[in-house]
Amino acid sequence: MNDKEFKQMLADLVAREEKYLQVNSEEFNRRHRELMDLIERASRKE
After folding, report:
1. Residue 17: how many CA atoms within 13 Å on its side-chain side?
2. Which of 2, 4, 23, 34 could cysteine-pair with 18, CB 3.0–4.6 Å?
3. Domain range spanning residue 40?
4. CB neighbours of 24 closer than 8 A, spacing ≥ 6?
């Protein structure tokens, strides 16, 4: 496998994972905001 083929393989894997995780969907973004809020609150307590 050459570099070009490897890069294409990784791009395909990322695209499939983004589709599986529904990246940029309303639900994904809502959950992301919830997690970021939790992280922010936890870091303030330290």
Report:
1. 6
2. 23
3. 19-46
4. none
